[in-house]
Amino acid sequence: MSDNDSAEVDVREKVDNLPLSPGVYMFKDKKDRLLYIGKAKRLRNRVRSYFQDSSDHDGRISVMIRKIDDLEVIVTDSEAEALILENNLIKKHHPRYNILYRDDKTYPYICVTNDERPRVYPTRTVINDGSKYYGPYDSVTHMKRMLDTIRKAFDLCTCAVSRKNIDRTKGPPKWHSCFDDYLESCSGDWDLEKYQATIDKVERMLNGRTNALIQDLKEEMSIASDALEFEQAAQIRDSLEAVKKYSKKMKMVADKKVDRDLFAVKVDEEINEACGVLFKVREGKLISKFHRFLKNIKHLEKGEMLQSFVEDYYTGQHAGGIPDEVYISDELVNEEPLAQYLWEERGKKVRIHRPQRGEKAKMIRMALSNAKYLLGERKLEKEKAAKKHIPHSVKELKEQLNLQRLPRRIECFDNSNLQGSDPVASMVCFVDARPKKSEYKRFNIKTVEGPDDFASMKEVLSRRYKRVMDEKQQIPDLIVVDGGKGQLSSAVQALKDIGFYGECEIVGLAKRLEEVFVPGKDNPIMIPKKSSALKLLQKVRDEAHRFAVSFHRNKRSKRTIKTELTQISGIGKKTAQQLLKKFGSVKSVQNAALEDLQEEIGKKTGQKVYQYFHNSSAEEE
């Protein structure tokens, strides 16, 4: 019994002993690395499903199952607990086969600390310390607008350091934008009751409860005015105006003053990533947007991606409460654990729904449009990064050959003929060490008779780079010719004759000892055998040779068809190609049995072909 078989038996034995309880399961490989973390309502049933009929699994899961060497489970009291534990473990360990998240930036939050006198300040770092983190904000501008409103409305300090962190002999840190703490005139000097009441208003503001807050401020202002406390009433009036001004800037997206979160996921198969978008609506107004890129999604359904995105958000660090409604762009794979978790967090049922029409469906479409746009930007970023990335082999080739510029675009030439017949040449193009097949060129040799590789190379390079100059096409960084000194000399002369020499560098690569010849130097450059630079040159040269040979064979085959099979009365090019495809060569067609020919191209035509070859043979004898 092999080690793999033994490991599988051990895991299956563990599976048979698993409880029918909710919990989290973890698959590990031989090196004790976590492969996958999942949750289950009934652990035994869920884990057992992996080891049943493999035809039910996609390729990704099948590969993972073959790597499983051990199994570990953690039993929980409910599916909701399993959901939280699963997400925490995934974030901690980043298993290879789980969906992974990539933020294109670190989002800004507003933190309200877990202190007797909570501090309110901006941050990009979320810490599990009991503080509340409001956001994430889709831009720093939106976050600053909120902080500015908090300062104007409530006179509350929103600086990023506390009083105890300030050295009074040196003053506030250079990065400290607020001097209120240092001047001892900020909200830190308020009595505790007033401070805590103000924090309560700030949190309502951060939660998007502006309508209720405006109503409360109006009542407070009225009470202060009736009590003839005009200074206090004026302060409340200023607060009221600041909150109203902020509220007007918030986009109204729902007729009813509802609280809802809208989640949507869009997939781009070309880059093998998805984008999850969240719209957070409070009191009918869009208060924030959030997105994340999902990686490691091959073979996953949209519902699986969406469920992971939603669960990851709600089990992460966030404040602002659970909304009345959660709307989704696709059906979730298993809604039950999420629904239970939201119920427990909020204290009452939260509706999870996929809208098909109306205002809510319109919002989902808007979220999907945002996700599509973000994926487009992500694709452009990847393309730009790929262009900036220069492979090591390209850098090393520049050093080994002492080139003036990086050989990012290489054009390589090779000739092919059979004792001078059907002479052809090829040009292949490599960009950043990768073949760019759309730039490959084929050449029929027109001016050279007989097997003269030097003259053929001269003709081809003259034609190629005369056209490059005439049509102002992209000039390569390096030209490579397949051959030694002689080939290189012919190529150099060709470039000089048309006035192209010096526009880029050129070398010759000799096959026998893999020597690189450079114009003006008698001795070749010997690049180390294990060098990535030499491997790149060999790869380019071999591809040019393959392309030239395949072109030559194709041309010779067409000539053979024309001179042999198409000479038969009633046989056209199409029938000739059909025969060659079936039998492989003209000689095989000649030796084929009459029955086989008739079966392939019909009774009458097969008879003609058979008689042509066999009558010809009889006449020769």
TrEMBL record:
Any one Pfam family match given in the protein's UniProt record, by short name: HHH_5
Keyword Transmembrane helix: no
Family, per entry: Belongs to the UvrC family.
Name by which UniProt lists this protein: UvrABC system protein C
Role according to the record: The UvrABC repair system catalyzes the recognition and processing of DNA lesions. UvrC both incises the 5' and 3' sides of the lesion. The N-terminal half is responsible for the 3' incision and the C-terminal half is responsible for the 5' incision.
Keywords of this entry: Cytoplasm, DNA damage, DNA excision, DNA repair, Excision nuclease, SOS response
A GO cellular component annotation in the UniProt record: excinuclease repair complex
Compartmental location: Cytoplasm
CDD domains, per the entry: GIY-YIG_UvrC_Cho
Chief subcellular location: cytoplasm
The UniProt record lists the keyword DNA repair: yes
Subunit structure: Interacts with UvrB in an incision complex.
Species lineage: Bacteria, Pseudomonadati, Balneolota, Balneolia, Balneolales
Source organism of this protein record: Fodinibius salipaludis
Domain GIY-YIG: 20-99
Gene3D superfamilies given in the database record: 5' to 3' exonuclease, C-terminal subdomain, GIY-YIG endonuclease, UVR domain, UvrC, RNAse H endonuclease domain
All copies of domain UvrC family homology region profile, residue ranges: 274-495
Stored PROSITE patterns: GIY_YIG (PS50164), UVR (PS50151), UVRC (PS50165)
Ranges where the UVR domain occurs: 211-246
Record GO terms (molecular function): DNA binding; excinuclease ABC activity
Gene Ontology BP term (one): nucleotide-excision repair
